[in-house]
Amino acid sequence: MRFTRVLVTGGQGYLGSVVVDLLSRSGFEVVSLDSGYVTDTRAALPHVTYVQGDVLDPASWQTALADVEAVVHLAAIVGDPACGVDEDLAMRTNYLGTIRVVEACRKFGVGRIVFASTCSNYGSTEGEQVDVWSPLNPQSVYAQTKVLAEHYLLSPHGGGPEPCILRFATLHGLSPRMRFDLAVNIMTASALAQGRIVVQGGSQWRPFIHVRDAASAILKCLRRRPGSQAVVYNCGSNEENYLIKDLAELIRHEVPGSVTDILGDVQDLRNYRVDFSLIRQTLSFTNSFRVVDGVREIRDAMMNGAYDDYLSPRYSNHLRALDVSHQGAL
Ligand SMILES: NC(=O)c1ccc[n+]([C@@H]2O[C@H](COP(=O)([O-])OP(=O)(O)OC[C@H]3O[C@@H](n4cnc5c(N)ncnc54)[C@H](O)[C@@H]3O)[C@@H](O)[C@H]2O)c1
Questions:
Q1: Residue 166 CA: which ligand 1 atom is closest?
Q2: Distance of CA 44 to CAs 31, 35, 49, 82, Å?
Q3: Distance from Cα 12 to the centre of ligand 1, integer Å
Q4: In this structure, which topology does domain 4-179+208-239+273-292 adopt according to CATH?
């Protein structure tokens, strides 16, 4: 039964392509909106409507919001290195783009917006566990754009969509639009292809979540009762907080013959251990996968010959952003 029409911005991205698939299989009528900023292939799932458009230019796509009941807003320039290539573009896309999407939602009477934020908003917490009420301490332009967008979503602007904000842990695992610029994915790929896992420092904490679990959390947000009290959730699970050196050890164990190379103790500005109790208690969200599952599926896909070119710019938001910026400069 198709009961709700949902628009997913960034629907062709790493997370978006998994979300679009899950929502479509769960009975939603799905519209994907993506500018093609990082994706050059046109995904084509049956039953999904694909619209090419820039979130900054709603006039060109907002009619796609007709009869839409909820928006899942994922479109962004994603990651510290990619945002560093053109900080102004990152700020406009991630912050102003969110404002534009909310304004369009208001115009078309969209009732709900699920927003993809990030646990990197917490910055460096010296290993202290942080929860949704802890102060934010963004250490990069990327995190700053997300903090500002959250702030806007949480400000009252009469008649706008009800926000549900998910501060995701770092994603991992296979997606139709693969990324090899994420810690678990790149460390697994390099263990397999180079026999070596390079770790900078290693004593920093980082939480992880499988991309399919992240998509399931979004589904939970779409299904939660209107007017539910909590609007900001850390999205992940408590047992998936890892020290990076332990993550490397786990991967080394799963890729026989690989070695770990720890390069001194660099100061990583992102060091956070996150409490995910609220999403478990309020939305009954639990993860179905652990980091080891993401490692194994990537390892097996690579052993079957997929991703021989895992260092290609198409798998890296940073290299892709450099390409786009270079083309713009020509
Ligand atoms: N991947 C992670 O570890 C992670 C962690 C926390 C939060 N998030 C958030 O989840 C969301 C999805 O991340 P992802 O990993 O899928 O990244 P991604 O780069 O694969 O996906 C982002 C998508 O947005 C599109 N896009 C960029 N600019 C656009 C614009 N102006 N208009 C329309 N579309 C545009 C891109 O083409 C891409 O398909 C992002 O908002 C990100 O900040 C991701």
A1: 7
A2: 12, 15, 9, 26
A3: 9
A4: Rossmann fold (3.40.50)
